[in-house]
Design goal:
By secondary structure, this protein is of the alpha+beta class. It has 10 helices and 4 strands; from the N terminus they run H-H-E-H-E-H-H-E-H-E-H-H-H-H. The protein has a 4-stranded antiparallel beta sheet with strand order 1-2-4-3, sandwiched between helices. Pfam families: Nitroreductase.
Length: 250
C-alpha cells in the first residue's frame, strides 16, 4: 500500500491549526494541483477565492456558525464559475442560454468538488491537515456578497488547511457493503438492524471524543441533522436564480 492511500485511510477533520504560515512555494504547488484536476468537457468551470483577510474569515465563520473557520491558516472557497467562459463566448458573439444552464452549473459544481478533494489529498500528503466547510451554504447570498462574486458564479465548498494543532480520532464510517452495489441498487428490510453494530461503534466514539456530553448513535443523528433545514439554506435555489443561471433553457 503506498503512502497516498495510507494518508487517505487515516483522513481526519482538522479544525485547529498552529497558525504557522505555509510557504509560497507550497501554495503555488497546491494551486498547480488544483489546476490539474479533472474537469467536465475540459471547460474548467470553477475558480478559487483564497481568503487572506482576517475580517472576511471572521464574517464567513459567523455566517457559517463555526468559529474555528476564522482560525484556518489557509481558507480557500471553491466556486462554480460560468462567468469566465460566458464572457469568452460573448466576445466571440456566440453567447447563449445553454452556456449558463443548470446542466453547466452541475458541471461546474462537480469540477469544484473534484478540485477541492484533490487539494485535500495533496495537503494531507504534505503532513498538513484540512477541513471542509459546507457551512458557506448557511446563507449563500451573504457569502456571495462578502466575496464580491458576480452573476454566473456560486460558492460550492470551502477548504481550510494548515499545520495541525490537534490529533483527533478517526471517525468511524458505515460498512462499505451498505454503500456498494453491483449493477443495481439494493434495499434492505431493516436498515436499523443492518447498522446496529455501527450505531454502537459511533456511540463509543462520541463517548471518547466528547467526555461528559450526551452521546448519540448514528441513527439518532439522522432526524436531527438531515431531517431539518438550517436557517436560510432553503433559499439556495432562489439565490441560484438570482445569480443568473438559466434553469430551463429553451
Amino acid at each position: 500500500m503506498n503512502q497516498t492511500i495510507k494518508n487517505q485511510l487515516k483522513h481526519r477533520t482538522i479544525r485547529e491549526f498552529t497558525g504557522e504560515k505555509i510557504d509560497d512555494l507550497t501554495i503555488k504547488t497546491l494551486l498547480d494541483v488544483v489546476n490539474m484536476s479533472a474537469s467536465s468537457n475540459g471547460m474548467q468551470n470553477m475558480s478559487i477565492i483564497r481568503i487572506t483577510d482576517p475580517k472576511i474569515k471572521e464574517k464567513l465563520a459567523e455566517n457559517g456558525n463555526q468559529d474555528y473557520m476564522a482560525r484556518a491558516t489557509e481558507l480557500w472557497i471553491f466556486i462554480v464559475d460560468l462567468k469566465r467562459n460566458y464572457e469568452i463566448a460573448r466576445e466571440l458573439g456566440l453567447e447563449n442560454d445553454n452556456l449558463i444552464s443548470f446542466d453547466k452549473f452541475i458541471q461546474g459544481f462537480t469540477d469544484a468538488i473534484i478540485a477541492a478533494q484533490n487539494l485535500t489529498i495533496a495537503v494531507e500528503s504534505l503532513g498538513l491537515g484540512a477541513n471542509y466547510f459546507g457551512n458557506i451554504h448557511n446563507d449563500t447570498k451573504k457569502v456571495i456578497e462578502l466575496l464580491g462574486m458576480p452573476k454566473l458564479t456560486y460558492p460550492a465548498v470551502g477548504v481550510g488547511f494548515g499545520v495541525p494543532n490537534q490529533d483527533p480520532q478517526i471517525k468511524p464510517r458505515l460498512n462499505i457493503n451498505l454503500k456498494t452495489f453491483e449493477n443495481s441498487y439494493k434495499t434492505y428490510d431493516s436498515y436499523l438492524e443492518m447498522i446496529k453494530a455501527y450505531d454502537e461503534e459511533m456511540t463509543t466514539y462520541y463517548d471518547l471524543r466528547d467526555s461528559g456530553r450526551k452521546s448519540e448513535s448514528f441513527s439518532s443523528q439522522i432526524p436531527k441533522k438531515q431531517g431539518y433545514i438550517i436557517k436560510n439554506r432553503n433559499k439556495m435555489f432562489e439565490t441560484l436564480v438570482d445569480q443568473g443561471f438559466i434553469l430551463n433553457p429553451q
